[in-house]
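Hi! If you just cloned this repository, the fastest way to understand the data is to look at a raw example. We've pasted two of them here, unedited. The first protein comes first, obviously.
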Amino acid sequence: MDFQKCLLFFCTLVVLHAVLSFKASVSGNKCKETLANISFSCMRLNLHSIPPEIPSSAEKLDFSFNDLGTLHRNSFPSLPYLTFLDLTRCGIILIADDAFQNVSNLTILILTGNPIKQLEKKSFRSLHNLQKLTIVDTGLSALEKLPISHLTQLQELKAGKNIISSLKVPLYVFNLTSLRLLDLHSNNISSISLRDTTVLRKMDLTNLTLILTQNHISYVQSGAFDGVILKELHLRSAFDFPYAKNCCLKAMAGLKVDKLVLGNYRNTKLVTTSGSGPLDGLCMIEFQEIHITDIDDLSGHYPNARDIFHCLVNATVIKLLNCLLTDLKVPIFPKLKMLDLSYNNFENLPAAELSNQNTLETLRITDNWFLTSFNSRFLNMSSLKNLDISYNHITMRQCCIPQFSGADQLIILNMSYNLEIRFEGLAFDGIENLEILDLRYTKIGGFGDYPLLKNLKKLSYLDISYASTYFTSENALEGPANLKVLKAPGNLFHRGIVYFMHNPELELLDISHCQFDHLPQGTFKGLRNLQHLDVSHNKLTTIDFVTSPSLNTLTLIDLSNNNVPGIPQSVLDHLPKKMIVFDISQNPFECTCDYLSFFKWATEHKAILKNPNELLCKSPLSLTNTRVIDSDICKAKTLFIGVTIGILIILSAIAASIYKYQFHLLYCWILMKGYRSTQLQECKFDAFVVYSSLDEHWVMNELVENLENGVPPIELCLHNRDFQPGQLITSNILEEGIMSSRKVIIVLSKNFIASRWCKFEFDMARSWQFLEGTPGIIVIVLEDIKEEEIKHVFRLHKYLKKNTYLKWKDNALSSMRFWTRLRKAVLSGKR
């Protein structure tokens, strides 16, 4: 019967576990609601259909990385408002007619990574509003196989990473009047013929971007692009080798394109061949903007650096990025507006080489690792407005005359992230039109000592973040009276000086990380338009300065990461009225009643506090890391915490006492079960031996051998031999050991003193001796023990002071005397 009950119980547990596992599995496969009733994500849930819990109000659904197999007309529930659907890598093999009839308002459909074998003629018939179709990596072999002729709203068709072998554009493209992007990157297009581009040559494609990057084009039939007009044409890594590139570009004669993108990807290595330069074919193409990236063979093909540009002279924008250029010789570009020579190997800034480009408006020469000097001048560059020479390793000992004397219309100057620039005198004389100056993370010298910016009356934006500058003069920022943005974190300001009185139009001021420990009210005097003030990561202990009438226009104040203990009521009453964001997080707040008004204010103004959960108490210790915005932090919480701590202290004391006296409590509990005197029962043993298991060798080989095998034999009780299995150890010690024996033998050693059980057994024996009223404990000192060690066992130390004990010595004479005395002590009183 018991076996049947156990079997039934086991089966019940198995069934319950299975049910719970199933529920956990189902709940684990639930789609996430990323935006209430609007956006849902079912990604990677191993689903085979659209879950019915997706509401009809859904507008966006990410169903990628699931398993659908076939899309038929009932694959989707009715989702009339759905506009975005991602079916990436869902194992779709077949898309049947009208598969999307229940999601007919889609504008974006993503089918990337599906091994589509069949598209029926009416697969996309319902998608009249579709604007973006992504069918990348689906095994598509030709654009003609896409049944999309009716998608008149289609703007983007992305069909990269397929096996399309021809650029042949189907006739249905005539219907796609809204098409703006045709992406065929990473296909197998190797040749382009006249027949392939028939449609392109007959259409108005002035708004179309055609991407053919990472194909394997080796042949273009002459005239294939004659008359074709494109917005952009991307041909990065589209040719197998430079010779093919040149030939194919020449064959594209007659092509007109606003932006042409050429070059390689950094992991693409092309075989260099002899012959004409790889850019010579560009002379046959009409373009406005050209981007050439990662071509590292230009210097080898063009020993005369000027020849690199001979087919680019009519461009308005030229970008030669990461082409390993080391020097520069350029012709005069009659139309050039923008030139970008970033990521090359220049050692000197080619200012002289670029002089006389009087149409150039923007020049970028950034991220040149070897570019360390700027010694030449920009001459006759009257149109240059934007100069970016950031992220180089430039060191300038004297700036900025005469370097910029020929660029007097300069508006934007970016020299950030360089090594060191030193300014002297009227450093910006000749470029008084400067409006934006960026010097961040560049060590600048002489900037804080005198008014270097005095002649920059139009300057509106200045960034000197972490420029290792020490401001010592109150006139250091004199000049740009119309300055609106000043970013100066990570610099040092001499204490007690007002620096911003010359910049009354400031709207944003960042002086974080500047080691301020005090800011007097007059610091911001006259800043009538200041809206954003960042003084975070300083050492401020008070924020009285925010009550200055000059700061009434502030909408954002960042005081985070300072040493502010709290905000008094006098400051709270005068905070700027227009403040929208107030960040005072990460300060060591003192959560005492002195700042009770601040706690209430913070609770009432959580809407404007940034990171309110990071307003944490630092002191007192009882409230460490408690949130300031929690109400009644001064009263109720203090009382609650005090009571709680008191209870915890009491409970801890009780727990410690129980742990310390656990054996004694167990002993009392056993005694309460009932008392049986040894005088009323017959003892089974002559002596119960209390010893450490580490001394078992001596007990068995010496004590047991001499007492139990002697004459007369003495019956010993040993815990490892005579205790009853299945009972509590404490019960065995008392009932089977002490209560069933006339005497108790204590084998005292260092191991005994280290054993809690041994000390417990001794205490029980002492208590039993007291109840019996007869001497029954015999102590054997097995080895020399220091008195300091015995003192740790208070009762034992006291007992040895008042009672005689035996001491074991391992020699023949002493051993004989020892066993005689021990046998006599054990047998005394035996009837």
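Ok, and the second one:
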Amino acid sequence: MPPERPNPRWDQSPSSVISECEQTARTSDYEHITTPVLIIGAGAAGVRTAIELAEHGIEPLVIGKRDHGDAHTTWAAGGINAALGSHDPDDDWRIHAADTLQEGHFINDPVAVEVVTEAMPERLRELAEWGMPFDRTNGGRIDQRYFGAQSFRRTAFVGDRTGKALLDTLIERAKSLHIPYRENVLVTELISDGNRVYGAIAIDVETGQFLLFETAHVVLAAGGCSALYGRHSSRDDENTADGPALAYRAGADLLDLEFVQFHPTGMVGDRYGETWDGRLVTEAVRGEGGRLYNSHGERFMKRYSPVQLELDARDVVARAIATEIDEGRGTDNGGVYLDISHQDTAFIRERLPRMFERFQSLGVDISEQPIEVAPTAHYSMGGVDIDWTTGRTAIDGLFAVGETAAGLHGANRLGGNSLAETVVVGQIVGSHIAAHGVGESTMPDGVLADAERTMSALVSFVESDGNVHPSALIADLRRVMDEHAGIFRDERTLQQGLEMVNDIADRTTTLRFTGGLTSEAFELAIDLSYMLTVAEGVLRGALKRKESRGAHFRTDFPETRKVWQKNILSAHANTGSTLWCREPGRPSSAIESAIDEGYELEYHHLE
């Protein structure tokens, strides 16, 4: 379990928004569903957890906000890391671990790093056995490409649609095991007494029916919080902080929230249209030799990173691009140029088919023309604090996997490690639950009564008579986060941002709804409650960390400070958020040896 922590009293209100509505004596009708394990989230991490449970004879229930197979995993395009040595036989999992720790600026959980990197070769071969159609070398081995800040070619791939291929493979495996799945389910709250979790309250978004899930184990696989920002790589209705907020309000701790990764290359809306603004241009474009140029035609990464160039760490490249734009060397549309046209057309179409087709549909032939890109909020290194040998949180029965969990990535995520994380920790959690037995899922009468009151409060909330649509407050929140918690931060702008977030929270008393529990407005209001909870945590963590480290850059504290080589945790007390710190621990001697050996990417292989 995670280390001992402060012991506040837990606020059991349904959410920061819903707590404002008047409680009523009504008890809403609901469907009562019992399952041994409830998995909230149907992306790669959730499905891999379910597969492991099913293979041990336990039938979990997987629930998702959208149609089956429509998960954020599909947008992870470039690849998945494992030290296979397909091209570089000197690579091994220790060096993968060393790269991960260095990219995370040594505040990663060293147990998490070792667990994931050591397990990944086996997990990758397992995926191949299940039918994942990896690109192959001429000799038949799983092919691997360069990704930023990696010492060797370690990123396995399926063209530039690796995430979709991964999820399709896992879903087919899950179907073969007859794992039950329920789609279009919006979870509004976990049922918890602050010590253990008993289930979840949800809405069937198609019928408006309340659902009460009773279970011995809840696994949160509901993604991260990059959609807190206006310019982000997710679709607007995903990565809205559901997982971390649900865990936090149930009594679990959050870790490293100040670290939000801005991917260097997102599409520029002024060039490609509002629908595409911020959407990811995979790192595989740079991994296959793509080069960055400013409006003066200068390959500017030579100034910022003369050795690793475009394949330096994501935070380095993102800050470089942002600086070029801020100092007037960007394009008229507010970006820089990413150019891979020096590669053969056949090579581009084979290695980057999704990118080629996307831009072709927008009138751009990337084999002949550069594309315009700018940084975009992409991934949250922060999330729920877990024990990486089991996936457990500090709340009995509550687990977190995938981007909902924190600890592996530290201050900045190594590209290709997100998909790796999903299949490793999913297997660990499923195996742990199976080994220890699912136990009974008996919900105490008092806890059940509280859950029923929460459902009644939700009905009153929807019937409230306000004049502000939730989408307006979400737009305001995203503007605040863009302007006050972006790539460059300082005390004044962060403090202003925190005050503005609190003002938006106050304005939730004026929300307006039409269409009841099945309405888009209701779903957006729930999203808003999650987003406000975690946005405050991001800003508070960024204010507390008075240094620059990885994805967190303070212009008023531009240096990395040894005294801040520690993690910031957030606990939910009845008086508000409580922040505290702990040391991340030391890597094993095997990993420290790999760090000392000083491996580094040799970019000239791409030239």
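That's it. A detail worth noticing about the second one: DSSP finds 17 helices and 21 strands in the chain.
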